Amino acid sequence: MTARATARPVGTVTRGTTNPNRLRRMDRWIAAVHGAELRRAADPVAVDLGYGAAPWTAVELLGRLRAVAPRTRVVGVEIEPARVAAAVPYEREGLTFRHGGFEVPVPGRPQLIRAANVLRQYDEGEVAAVWRRLCARLAPADPATGARGGLLVEGTCDEIGRRHVWVALGPEGPRTVTFATRLASLDRPSDLAERLPKALIHRNVPGEPVHAFLRDFDRAWAAAAPYAAYGARQRWMRAVGDLAVDWPVTDGPARWRQGEVTVRWAALAPRG
Questions:
Q1: For residue 48, what are the domain limits?
Q2: In sequence order, what DSSP letters do the residues of 212-267 get, joined into one string?
Q3: 255 — alpha (psi -120 to 50), left (phi > 0) or beta?
Q4: For residue 256, how far is the Cα from the chain centroid?
């Protein structure tokens, strides 16, 4: 194998579809749950992996993370060279763009890798290997300080960011799954099924945990119908509260009010 072939970015070009504010739900969740890790890191680097045809998501990520961790630097990584060239004029202090793929060509170990709408085009069987590769690039945990290490956030959303589902992974592997939505546009929770990440979207069938979860969520939503008189937020919070009786929900009302719910990965992981 030649040196040139060895240096070739790992992965394939995505469609590149992007819109301003598309990833706002994911960003605000990252800022809330991972802000402390970014603040305590000596060199907090966040990677926007596969940002697409325009650099909006990387620009927005910098602003949202710096609101909670002012020293954070963001590196946008794209496998299509023309997209990198188009993004370079948007570079500023704390924001750079690089050509690359799943090898994540940044020095050291980043505190965050965000890969939104990147794995959608891959086969389900390829996901685990990509996850392992990306998790191996994360900053390691440090038991001496209590640091949990870096975070990989991988998921899928619709074109304008109303519905989004993502998996959060640490250096050790997958931790949680988060469902997030604009509540005013929601008919029932299982509407989010079409935005399940690649690891789960083909598992929304009877006998799989994610199917049972969405079924129970729809039932809790239906039972909470009387709360709709107080608004969709109150109905969602009541439904999630009921759901948490039988499912390992890891967050609380402060996040539920945002139209979110986070569940342990082990409860939704595919069987077989």
A1: 3-188
A2: HHHHHHHHHHHHTGGGGGG-HHHHHHHHHHHHTTTS-B---HHHHTTTEEEEEHHH
A3: alpha
A4: 17
* Cα distances (angstroms) measured from residue 228 to each of 153, 221, 222: 32, 10, 10
> Is the Cβ–Cβ distance between 218 and 212 less than 8 Å?
no
- Statement to judge: residues 116 and 144 lie in one domain: yes
- Can you tell me whether residue 164 is helix, strand or coil? strand
Sign of CA dihedral 132, 189, 202, 159: negative
Q: What is the pLDDT of residues 61-81, one digit of tens each?
A: 999 999 999 999 999 999 999
* pTM (predicted TM-score): 0.95
Residue 56 forms part of a structural domain: yes
Write the CA distances from 120 to 49, 148, 241, integer angstroms: 13, 27, 31
For residue 107, how many other CB atoms are within 10 A of its CB? Answer: 8
pLDDT for res 13:
85
